[in-house]
Specification:
By secondary structure, the protein is of the alpha/beta class. The chain has 2 domains: 141 residues, Rossmann fold, CATH 3.40.50.2020; 140 residues, Rossmann fold (3-Layer(aba) Sandwich). It is built from 8 helices and 14 strands. The strands form 3 sheets. The protein has a 7-stranded mixed beta sheet with strand order 10-9-8-11-12-13-14, sandwiched between helices. Strands 1-4-5-6-7 form a 5-stranded parallel beta sheet, with helices on both faces.
Length: 298
Amino acid sequence: MKIISGSSNISLATAIGEAFSLPLVKLDISQFANGEKRVWIEESLAGEDVVIVQSLSRPVDEHLIELLLLIDSVERLGARDVHLVVPWLGYSLQDKVFKPGEPIAVKVIANVLSNCYVRRIYLMDVHNTSTPGFFSVPTTHLSAQSAFVTYAQANFDLKQAVVASPDFGGLKRARVFADALQLNLVNIDKQRDLQSGQISSAILHGNVKDKIVLIVDDTIQSGSTIKEVAETMKAAQAKKVHFLATHGPMVSKAYQLIEAAPIDSVVVTNTIAPEKESKKIKVVDVSDIFVKSLEQWF
């Protein structure tokens, strides 16, 4: 077995490799003067089972092309099987058509990866749980919930806590998390402009007075949800507000919003390598979740 890392999340790939007592395959990723990516794998992979780790995070298109070049290189070197770990699936938020003329972008990405030299794909907490169905190769959809449950048990006073979903679409995810911690669930009815992405209103359903509120979501994009939801909870006299999301932040300005928001902490996983540091942001390692899934095959 060999483990290859693209440039998007070397630290996560390294952690996965260490769990198998394997160093990462030596390779060189650079760029030609005209902006094209150049990939060179420096080791023999003939007859090997290979795991490629690459998050399709910013810059998304560069990381996607890089991944496709890595897959082609592995195939040309004679690898036997290729397993693809994509901790964050870029374009996964574009999972439906809102107006005529738009593509289902994540389906396009799924088709591209499914037509490559890949035997199995591993994803984590995609926005729409039906997204793995777009892939025509076996796809394992993993969840970071167990990591968040462990974190919450170790860091929060659960006797005073409630779980919240930031919107109607996340109710199922939040309910599973609340059940795992044996906590009550509250909900926010959030209205968002589909064109601009801005939140126009947030209405709380449930009592959070003097409570520690654990808000659960799949991604942090601009940070606007954190700001609006935290303000709503604090206005309802919540004692503490903590936001837990598998992926994020997605854009640089999110860090500024998080620092300015009345939020006590933001807990994310290492599916995306952080662009900046923040005292409010805590990172939970999910490499063991990928390792346990990979161990079934290696």
